[in-house]
Amino acid sequence: MTFEKEIKITEVALRDGSHAVSHQYTVEQVTTIAKALNEARIPYIEVTHGDGLGGSSLQYGLSKTDEMKLIEAAVAVSDFSKIAVLLLPGIGTIEDLKQAAKIGAKMARIATHVTEADIAKQHIETAKDLGMETVGFLMMSHMAPVEKIVEQAKLMESYGADTVYIVDSAGALLPDQVRARIKAIRQAISINVGFHAHNNLSLAMGNTLAAIEEGATRIDGSIRCLGAGAGNTQTEVLVAVLDRMGIQTGIDLYKLMDVSEDVVSQILQKPQIINRDSLTLGYAGVYSSFLLHAKRAAEKFSVDSRDILIELGKRKIVGGQEDMIVDVAAELSKKKSGSACPSTYTT
Amino acid sequence: MTFEKEIKITEVALRDGSHAVSHQYTVEQVTTIAKALNEARIPYIEVTHGDGLGGSSLQYGLSKTDEMKLIEAAVAVSDFSKIAVLLLPGIGTIEDLKQAAKIGAKMARIATHVTEADIAKQHIETAKDLGMETVGFLMMSHMAPVEKIVEQAKLMESYGADTVYIVDSAGALLPDQVRARIKAIRQAISINVGFHAHNNLSLAMGNTLAAIEEGATRIDGSIRCLGAGAGNTQTEVLVAVLDRMGIQTGIDLYKLMDVSEDVVSQILQKPQIINRDSLTLGYAGVYSSFLLHAKRAAEKFSVDSRDILIELGKRKIVGGQEDMIVDVAAELSKKKSGSACPSTYTT
Fold first, then answer.
1. Counting CB atoms within 10 angstroms of each CB, which of A247, B276, B320, B332 has the fewest?
2. Residues A281 and A255 both lie in one domain
3. How far is CA A46 from CA A68, A106, B182, in A?
4. Which residues of B fall within a CB distance of 8 Å from A232?
5. Which helix or strand (DSSP H or E) is residue A126 part of?
6. Based on the domain organization, do B261 and B301 belong to the same domain?
7. Tally of CB atoms within 10 A around B159
8. CB contact under 8 A, B233 and A261
9. How many separate domains does chain A show?
């Protein structure tokens, strides 16, 4: 294997990890963690609500602390690391982005569903105008075929993005699928290619190495696996693995191990393991937000919530189509018993 | 990718996982877990002390329950699954093996350091004479070059083993190293090839898929990651991944997920995560038993225990050479300060 460039890591524990702490980060926690990450020489630290700028809401979970205060806190202690923000058009606004840039965020990551890059145009252009390094973030990348992803990556490049990421939001991709996706967009675009993994199928690290082998040079990690679902590629482990492979990251491994053990592990609400729920989400390839809906529907119709989630995955149901969950539960119940009545009616 | 055969999984939570519960398994726990694994149609269930037959000792940790009672309990509830036992010549004896066979164990896995297959001859031959399916288990396989491993695998085949395993005891191998090892022994021997991973570098699943890609057909997994260090390839996740790849295992995924969530998670003393210690062991590529020694020596000589472990890995120190740990600590201290005095003398 040969590697063209240094790998640049973005630490997402203060953004994707926000899900793992129910968006309860405090200024003090963010200050402590960002300071340690800066000392370990992490290139980029992402700080926002788990669902990006403006994510704090009843729908996505209310943040304990205004994310702008958290961004300011991270900026204040980072003289090496650049602070990144995530923005999902439709959740965050151009105004949020401008405010983040004003208080010192240097990188904007504009995230859309893998087939909807076109809604990122204005945001990517604004981020570039604001002088930010800009990333196009193609979420749920397991849901589209390679050709579609290539088309969407080209769109993001055309809007001015400096990097395009393949994002395995559900932790559903297998190594060969990662290879095919990274290889194809590497051939189609001339900007940086990145990869963001989730560990629901225990493949975050394996998939990350497959992505690097195919030429991805921007990689997301979360210290102590602090991310949604089963967490992301564990940053301190990734740095150790890359070191063993002779790939330089410029990051201080011991400092990173120490902040994981001595700081981050203390604020975790529960360990980041692969349990029945996270495995089911990765296996089915669906949004984690479907889980609770599926469990409720499963109870109502006396079916297994896993069967519902797997069926939703097969039908490629996306966010906004939650109504389908009850329909699928009813169908499964009918198939099972010959009637589609909620269980409360049949007992 | 094409796959020649069905993958046969050996569940090691009741053996390797014995480390994770400090060898405190009870007859009731083993009965409950083995019964559920049998119902899920796991082909092989390994049951012994974490260090194999006869492992219960002050040196390796005393078992709460006589392992023969645990084997009997597992045999009693398994009409589908075959019960396997691990034996390390020097720890377990031929008599232990005969007793295990007498009470119903159907598979013997004879484990040696990767360069010491010759000490397994008598045990493999005896196991075959007892009518057991027999596996040669090459431990710490990251410590020997490919040619050496091929030579050792051939020895085990010549003694009559039905299968030879590449065992990544320290969780130190990278996917390309796994591929090279499996490929080479597949070409050199005509019996089954197996792979046993540890997750210290978050690569248990990635390495397992690499092994399968190169033709390994026998794979070890531990439910809920219940194994030494950071645990093994998580069985229920492996079954889900193989299913997604179209590889049949004959195992009931939902039943396996349920026993993981409802039974095994309850008896775990701590979650199986990758922490500073397990990461260091995988990065250094050393025995987990070195950890405590290294920490003591580090304190005495005021050096970082990680530096000691990494140096031990570089020198390929193996079990039985624990004296070297203090020597290495003294050398590192000398290099650091110009003197090799224990810190208690220099303060």
1. B320
2. no
3. 12, 10, 40
4. none
5. helix A121-129
6. no
7. 20
8. no
9. 2
Amino acid present at B83: I
All residues at 6 or more sequence positions from A200 whose CB lies less than 8 Å from its CB, including other chains = A170, A171, A172, A229, A230, A274, A278, A279, A281, A282, A283
In a domain, A107, yes or no: yes
Within a domain: residue A1? no
Q: Which tens digits make up the pLDDT trace of A171-184?
A: 999 999 999 999 99
Q: Both A75 and A176 in a single domain?
A: yes
ipTM: 0.94
CA A215 from centre of chain = 20
**What tens digit of pLDDT does each residue of B179-207 get?**
999 999 999 999 999 999 999 999 999 99
Interface-testing mutation among A198, A279, A295, A307, with chain B (most B C-beta atoms within 10 A): A279
Q: Do A233 and B203 touch (CB under 8 A)?
A: no
Residue with tokens 């570089």: B314
Residues of B in contact with A234 (CB under 8 A): 202, 274
Q: List CB contacts of A14: < 8 A, sequence separation 6 or more.
A: A25, A30, A33, A34, A45, A46, A47, A70, A74
A182 CA to chain B: closest CA distance, Å?
A: 17
For residues A55 and A158, membership in a common domain is answered with: yes
Residue A281 and residue A190 share a domain:
no
According to the annotation, is A287 in a ligand binding site? Answer: yes
Q: Does one domain contain both B212 and B331?
A: no
- Chain B: give the shortest CA distance to residue A335, in Å: 19
For residue A58, count CB atoms less than 10 angstroms from its CB and return exposed for 0-12, middle for 13-18, buried for 19 or more: exposed
Kindly indicate the confidence band of residue A336, based on its pLDDT and cuts at 50, 70 and 90: confident
List the domain range (segments joined by +) for residue A164. Answer: 8-267
Whether B211 and B302 map to the same domain: the answer is: no
Residue entry with tokens 């080209």: A154
Enter the tokens of residue B130. Answer: 């007892």
Pair (B203, B324) in one structural domain:
no
Q: Is residue B279 domain-resident?
A: no
| Shortest distance, CA B188 to any CA of chain A (angstroms) | 25
Show the tokens assigned to B118. 């010759």
Res. B339: pLDDT tops 80 = no
How high is the pLDDT of residue A267? Answer: 86
The residue out of A212, A246, A267 marking a domain boundary is A267
Q: Can you tell me the distance from the alpha carbon of B270 to that of B278, in angstroms, rounded to the nearest whole number?
A: 13
> What confidence tens digit (pLDDT) does each residue in A200-241 have?
999 999 999 999 999 999 999 999 999 998 999 999 999 999
Hey, what are A203's tokens?
């493949």
Contacts of A243 in chain B (CB under 8 A): 283
Q: Is A19 a catalytic residue?
A: yes
At residue A342 the predicted structure's pLDDT band, cuts being 50, 70 and 90, is low
CATH number for the domain spanning B320: value is: 1.10.8.60
Q: Would you call B182 exposed, middle or buried from its count of C-beta atoms within 10 A (0-12, 13-18, 19+)?
A: buried
Tokens of A125: 């252009």
CB within 8 Å: A274 and B204? no
User: Of A206, A243, A306, which has the smallest distance from its Cβ to B206's Cβ?
Assistant: A206
Contacts of A246 (CB under 8 A, 6+ apart): none
Residue labelled with tokens 């596996």: B135
| Known binding-site residue numbers of B for substrate | 15-16, 169, 196, 287
Nearest to B231 by CA among B201, B263, B261: B201
- Domain end residue (candidates: A267, A290, A320): A267
